[in-house]
Amino acid sequence: MSDWKLPWDGGCRCGQVRLRVSAPPMITSACHCTGCQRMTASAFTLTVTVPSVGFIVTAGEPVIGGLQQGFAHHYFCPRCKSWMFTRAEGYDQFVNVRASMLDDHHWFVPFIEVWTKEKLPWATTPAEISFDTQPAIEDYARLMEDFARRGVRPT
Ligand SMILES: [Zn+2]
Ligand SMILES: [Zn+2]
């Protein structure tokens, strides 16, 4: 557990919203879907999936932006509009934190990448496992076990 060097603090571009992660991540990923391309104004998102019990907002009040319907709720800083994390309705046990919000994220490597069928032709990541769309729900347990064993740690 201690090799994750927790807790991790993070925040938005302007610093109004701050967050803290205090539990080991479940998995790390990159998402190439066109929705993430729009919201990042870039090629893909970088995500650290953490247990909800190990995630708190320590300053500011994030607002919902991005997709305004459906089960995914995208949280942004109300001031600088950084996309900070995502919660999924019906999946209250985890939060998807955008890796680049962490003050120290230089250790981050995506373990899996998803939605490669929508990726830009040149966009590549060092992820070990790629999925055209998403892993099946029943595959996540095995992926998370794998990640717990050999996912890249903070240095
Ligand atoms: Zn901000
Ligand atoms: Zn996506």
Task: Label this structure with key terms.
mainly beta; 2 helices; 155 residues; 8-stranded mixed beta sheet
Structure explained in plain terms:
This protein has 2 helices and 11 strands, in the order E-E-E-H-E-E-E-E-E-E-E-E-H. With 155 residues, it is mostly beta strands. An 8-stranded mixed β-sheet has the order 6-7-8-9-4-3-10-11. Strands 1-2-5 form a 3-stranded antiparallel β-sheet, with no helix packed on it. A hairpin with a 6-residue loop joins strand 6 (63-65) and strand 7. The longest helix has 11 residues, at 140-150. It is globular. The model has no long low-confidence stretch (mean pLDDT 95). The structure holds zinc ion (2 copies). One zinc ion binds next to helix 1.
Short description:
With 155 residues, this protein is mostly beta strands. It has helices spanning 34-40, 140-150; strands spanning 8-11, 18-21, 27-31, 45-51, 55-59, 63-65, 72-76, 83-88, 94-98, 112-114, 129-130. Strand 8 and strand 9 (94-98) form a beta hairpin.
Please give the share of residues in helix. Answer: 10-25%
* SSE order, one letter for each helix or strand: EEEHEEEEEEEEH
What is the approximate shape?
globular
User: What structural class should be given to the helix and strand makeup?
Assistant: mainly beta
**Small molecules bound in the structure, each named once:** zinc ion
- Determine the mean pLDDT: 95
Content of β-strand: 25-35%
Number of helices: 2
Low-pLDDT runs? none
Compute the number of strand runs: 11
User: What is the C-alpha radius of gyration, as a whole number of Å?
Assistant: 15 Å
Spatial gap, N to C terminus: 14 Å
Query: What is the spatial order of strands in the main beta sheet?
Result: 6-7-8-9-4-3-10-11
Biggest sheet statistics: 8 strands, mixed
